[in-house]
Amino acid sequence: MAQSEGDAVRIDVWLWAARIFKTRSQSAAAVRAGHAKLNGQAVKPSAEVVPGDEVRVWKNHHNYIFEVTGTVKKRVGAPVARTLYIDKSPPPPPREVLASMPVRERGAGRPTKKDRRALDRLRGHH
């Protein structure tokens, strides 16, 4: 299944084959938009990934960091796909932090000056 260690594969193909994205066009669009970076650099979908590279992906409002350990040109099953990378992503924030953030009701319109000042105080800006 996995190719030899030194084989280079396009980043959009690797993201799709490792099951980070559901379709290859989604992975290519993410790379084009700058949501997937190779070794800290924004690259084109044709950039080549080799084992040892670091791939950072911004997906679903979460930052993922992967170290490439293997490459494949075809999409593989989930158990095999998990062997293609080491997930070094930071853990998501605890639910308590997310629950404590203020949420504005939909359709409430723009915040008033009083609301904005209250938000600034809450965030510690003033």
How is the secondary structure organized here?
Layout (H helix, E strand, L loop, with lengths): L8 E2 H7 L6 H9 L3 E3 L2 E2 L5 E2 L4 E6 L2 E7 L9 H4 L3 E3 L7 H6 L12 H11 L3
Antiparallel strand pairs: 1-4, 2-3, 2-5, 5-6, 6-7
Helix pairs in contact: 1-2
**Kindly state the mean pLDDT as a whole number?**
86
User: What's the total count of β strands?
Assistant: 7
Strand order of the largest sheet: 3-2-5-6-7
Overall geometry: elongated
| Helix and strand run | EHHEEEEEHEHH
Gyration radius, in Å: 19 Å
Q: What percent of residues adopt helix (DSSP H or I)?
A: 25-40%
| Cα distance spanning the termini | 57 Å
Helix segment tally: 5
Uncertain residue segments:
none
Class from helix and strand fractions: alpha+beta
Which percent range describes the beta-strand content?
15-25%
Biggest β-sheet strands, sense, barrel: 5 strands, antiparallel
Overview of this structure, please?
By secondary structure, the chain is of the alpha+beta class. The strands form two sheets. It has a five-stranded antiparallel sheet. Strands 1-4 form a two-stranded antiparallel ribbon. The N and C termini lie far apart (57 Å). It is built from five helices and seven strands. The protein has helices at 11-17, 24-32, 78-81, 95-100, 113-123; strands at 9-10, 36-38, 41-42, 48-49, 54-59, 62-68, 85-87. Helix 1 crosses helix 2 (24-32).
